[in-house]
């Protein structure tokens, strides 16, 4: 692209600048000093001979005065020309001083004796010219003094308004002043003291001339101290030096007219008038030469500009035509005046078809008011940037475009139309919308994912954390964002995690590994991680799946496998042992008859027979555990069987233990071997007795139960369906948590040696499983134990009133419920059920967490808490503290113990609401509504 050249009109120290404001250069000072030095030397040489008489040459005076007058007038004119621009009062006074000097020189010449008349014109006398000389040489220093006081580095104070008027007034003032002075020194000369007698100076003359010389010296000193000095200031000081030499030679050291001092002083005066004039003339010539050169350069520049603009116009035309965006110009009434090739391609109309048509050609009807409004804004000198709108092609297809509209101006600057740049964003908008949907979907996945999604920087600091962290780790995203992952990962898994992150940065994507994180309540949560590294954004992305459920299911499966394996082994051993016992018991009778007459041997035989009987009982228990005992199931009334068992237990358990039957009405019949069931209840009662050495309460309870799919998913050996529950609960010492999983193992017992075989519970377990049922133990150390037997309901019976009640439509709600449960798996199951009923569910693992939530969330409607929990506060105490803080808060308890067991163990007040585990969804819904309405 051609570039435009520039003309430098004047630089900072260009000599064409006005001399009255142009700072004096060192060269100016050096030249002035040299001239003053030479003048001083010549003055010193002339002083001794100043009084030497010379030939009288009146023509010299005329020539001198004429040259002086012309020089001063030209100088005054040049200074006034500067004043016309700068308006400086100081310049006006200085130029007036030169006009005064010129007028005085002319008047002096006219009145000088012997030039135009023997005694001079205008009625001059012998004192006229000498007084004019003194007034003339004293007047100019006064003007210089005034100039020196008024000037500054910017030319001094300014005159407002037109400059012609002060110039005319200055000229007229000088003329008027000179007329008055001429009248005084001619017509009134007799009133003036005598300065010149017989061609020689009087004493008065010495005083007057000394005063005039002092005025000139004062003007020189004023100029010296009034800095900064302009060029005129420097040469005006040279002028005043010559002026001092003029006065000294012409009127002080000489003796009379026409002596050497007279002639040389006049020469100094002429020089004094010439210094400033010469500088001004030289600068004026330079200015003229500079102006001529500048005009030439401007002509060259003009030709260059014409070439530049023609090329630029051609280039702009090429740019417009080659632009990928549509460029359109239109008049203010909407008529298209310009249409480039991109517009043809975008809208489908050729330039010939579009130019001259209304812009409505490409504007949909419902957008025409918008187009008119845009033109109105343009006519108001407003530009429009990045305006998204819709336009229409020739084929009728709509386009999404973004417009940039600017006013189009004429050479005179008037707005005559609009220039539009239209960029097609149809595909871009579609891509943006697609990206928006994808981003929204990803955000929704991020927010609703049940897996834990983490984003960290290269140093392992969390950038983003999915909301699922609340369910998995009990933390909020804000608790983790900004913190290092090392604050949450188990120390033993840190190095492995770092190794996986390093591997990901080396390009090994989709890394899968396990690492344990700490839950808010302190327990460990094992997660399986999929991780990858994004180099463009320098971020790690992790997806962690909580393995708690999987590990629990695997543990349960392993327990089932273990029990099955033990059962198979036990069954095999019992079978073979039974074969051995068959031989022993079959032959012991023969042996007993043979030794009947020998008492000592008969006693041994009886001992062997008793041992064989005990062995038979043992194998019977082992076969029951192995689920290989012969059963004779029939439909029975569990309530009647339980009551019968309670009667038999009274003498067995002793007086210190109270037996409390709690039987539900309309209990379903069960298909089970009644003898084995009675034995199972007896075994459970005997275990309960052993757990209550100081006495207590034994609760025998029956209940109709439905185990749903949720419960079945948590217990792999359970089939969802209807069951009759028989619960045996005690208020004894309870079972340690670490031993709960082993209580059904054969030969495992916590009793002292000789106090039990460890086969009681294992026999009950085998009997229940062989009967197609389920058994569950709830126990807390120091509180007691509840063993629940779930037997399948007998089929082929009528629907009971209980079933009808349970099958009514489920009613949910929208209240906020706080679920407090220490078992993570159970808590997750309860949260799912509560949310499925429409409630807003919050969760806590213990009483401390629950109280924090109760304090921060004032909108909680119901506290749903387990009764027995580890820690310093159980569910009953939590409810009491919550009621103290929030008296209006409702409470619903839940427990693995039955309601009757809990109440009679003294842990809950009579009348409180308790939902016993397990429960079906309809029971949960009913109890939640009951609690909220209480």
From TrEMBL:
GO terms for biological process: regulation of DNA-templated transcription. The chain crosses the membrane at residues 31-51, 57-79, 91-110, 130-150, 162-185, 205-225, 234-256. GO terms for molecular function: ATP binding; phosphorelay sensor kinase activity. Its EC number is 2.7.13.3. It comes from the Bacteria. It catalyses: ATP + protein L-histidine = ADP + protein N-phospho-L-histidine. The keyword Iron does not apply. Residues 385-437 form the PAC domain. Keywords: ATP-binding, Kinase, Membrane, Nucleotide-binding, Phosphoprotein, Transferase, Transmembrane, Transmembrane helix, Two-component regulatory system. It is an enzyme of class 2 (transferase). This is histidine kinase. It comes from Bradyrhizobium rifense. The lineage of its organism: Bacteria, Pseudomonadati, Pseudomonadota, Alphaproteobacteria, Hyphomicrobiales.
């Amino acid at each position: 692209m051609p570039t435009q050249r520039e003309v430098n009109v004047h630089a900072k120290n260009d000599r064409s600048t006005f001399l009255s404001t142009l700072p004096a250069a060192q060269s100016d000072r050096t030249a002035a000093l040299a001239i003053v030095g030479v003048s001083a030397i010549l003055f010193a040489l002339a002083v001794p001979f100043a009084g030497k008489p010379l030939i009288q040459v009146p023509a010299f005076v005329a020539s001198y005065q004429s040259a002086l007058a012309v020089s001063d007038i030209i100088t005054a004119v040049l200074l006034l020309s500067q004043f016309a621009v700068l308006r400086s009062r100081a310049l006006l006074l200085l130029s007036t001083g030169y006009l005064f000097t010129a007028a005085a020189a002319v008047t002096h010449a006219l009145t000088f004796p012997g030039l135009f008349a023997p005694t001079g014109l205008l009625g001059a006398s012998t004192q006229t010219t000498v007084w004019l000389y003194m007034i003339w040489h004293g007047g100019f220093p006064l003007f210089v003094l005034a100039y020196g006081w008024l000037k500054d580095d910017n030319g001094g104070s300014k005159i407002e308004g037109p400059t012609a008027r002060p110039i005319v007034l200055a000229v007229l003032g000088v003329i008027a002043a000179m007329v008055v002075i001429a009248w005084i020194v001619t017509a009134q000369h007799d009133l003036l003291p005598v300065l010149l007698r017989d061609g020689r100076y009087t004493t008065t003359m010495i005083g007057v001339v000394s005063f005039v010389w002092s005025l000139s010296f004062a003007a020189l000193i004023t100029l010296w101290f009034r800095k900064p000095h302009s060029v005129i200031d420097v040469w005006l000081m040279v002028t005043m030096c010559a002026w001092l030499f003029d006065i000294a030679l012409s009127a002080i050291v000489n003796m009379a007219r026409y002596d050497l001092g007279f002639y040389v002083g006049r020469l100094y005066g002429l020089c004094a008038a010439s210094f400033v004039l010469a500088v001004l003339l030289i600068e004026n010539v330079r200015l003229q030469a500079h102006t001529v050169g500048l005009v030439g350069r401007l002509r060259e520049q003009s030709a260059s500009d014409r070439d530049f603009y023609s090329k630029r116009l051609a280039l702009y035309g090429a740019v417009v035509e080659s632009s990928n965006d549509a460029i359109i110009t239109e008049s203010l009434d909407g008529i298209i005046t310009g249409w480039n090739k991109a517009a043809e391609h975008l809208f489908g109309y050729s330039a010939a078809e579009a130019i001259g048509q209304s812009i409505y050609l490409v504007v949909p009807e419902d957008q025409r008011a918008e187009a008119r409004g845009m033109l109105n804004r343009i006519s108001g000198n407003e530009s429009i940037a990045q305006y998204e709108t819709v336009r229409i092609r020739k084929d009728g297809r709509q386009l999404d475009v973004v417009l940039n509209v600017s006013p189009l101006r004429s050479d005179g600057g008037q707005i005559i139309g609009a220039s539009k740049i239209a960029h097609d964003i149809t595909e871009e908008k579609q891509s943006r919308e697609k990206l928006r949907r994808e981003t929204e979907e990803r955000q929704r996945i991020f927010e609703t994912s049940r897996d834990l999604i983490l984003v960290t920087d290269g140093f392992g600091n969390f950038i983003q954390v999915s909301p699922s962290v609340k369910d998995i780790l009990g933390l909020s995203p804000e608790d983790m964002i900004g913190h290092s992952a090392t604050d949450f990962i188990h120390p033993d898994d840190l190095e492995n995690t770092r190794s996986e992150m390093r591997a990901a940065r080396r390009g090994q994507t989709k890394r899968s590994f396990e690492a344990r994180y700490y839950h808010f309540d302190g327990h460990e949560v094992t997660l399986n991680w999929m991780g990858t590294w994004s180099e463009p954004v320098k971020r790690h992305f992790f997806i962690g799946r909580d393995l708690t459920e999987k590990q629990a299911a695997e543990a349960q499966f392993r327990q089932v496998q273990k029990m099955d394996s033990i059962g198979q082994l036990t069954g095999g051993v019992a079978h073979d042992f039974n074969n051995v016992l068959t031989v022993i018991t079959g032959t012991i009778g023969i042996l007993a008859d043979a030794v009947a007459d020998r008492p000592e041997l008969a006693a041994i035989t009886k001992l062997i027979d008793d041992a064989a009987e005990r062995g038979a009982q043992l194998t019977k228990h082992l076969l029951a555990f192995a689920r290989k005992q012969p059963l004779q199931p029939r439909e029975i009334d569990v309530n009647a069987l339980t009551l019968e068992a309670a009667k038999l237990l009274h003498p067995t358990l002793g007086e210190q233990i109270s037996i409390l039957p709690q039987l539900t009405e309309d209990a379903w019949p069960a298909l089970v071997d009644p003898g084995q069931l009675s034995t199972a209840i007896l075994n459970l009662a005997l275990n309960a007795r052993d757990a209550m050495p100081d006495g207590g309460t034994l609760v025998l309870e029956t209940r109709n139960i439905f185990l749903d799919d949720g419960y079945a998913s948590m217990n792999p050996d359970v089939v969802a369906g209807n069951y009759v529950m028989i619960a045996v609960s005690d208020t004894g010492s309870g079972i340690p948590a670490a031993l709960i999983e082993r209580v059904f193992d054969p030969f495992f017992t916590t009793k002292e040696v000789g106090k039990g075989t460890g086969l009681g519970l294992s026999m009950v377990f085998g009997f229940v499983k062989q009967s197609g049922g389920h058994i569950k133990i709830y126990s807390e150390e120091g509180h007691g134990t509840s063993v629940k037997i779930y037997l399948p309901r007998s089929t082929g019976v009528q629907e009971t009133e209980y079933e009808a009640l349970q099958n009514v439509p489920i009613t949910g709600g929208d209240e906020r419920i706080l679920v407090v449960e220490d078992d993570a798996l159970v808590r997750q199951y309860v949260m799912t059920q509560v949310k499925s009923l429409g409630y807003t569910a919050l969760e806590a693992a213990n009483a401390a967490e629950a109280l924090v939530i109760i304090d921060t969330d004032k909108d909680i409607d119901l506290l749903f808490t387990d009764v027995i929990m580890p820690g310093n506060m159980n569910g009953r105490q939590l409810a009491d503290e919550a009621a103290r803080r929030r008296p209006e808060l409702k409470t619903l308890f839940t427990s693995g113990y039955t309601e009757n067991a809990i109440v009679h163990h003294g842990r809950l007040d009579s009348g409180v609401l308790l939902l016993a585990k397990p429960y079906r969804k309809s029971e949960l819904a009913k109890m939640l509504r009951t609690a909220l309405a209480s």
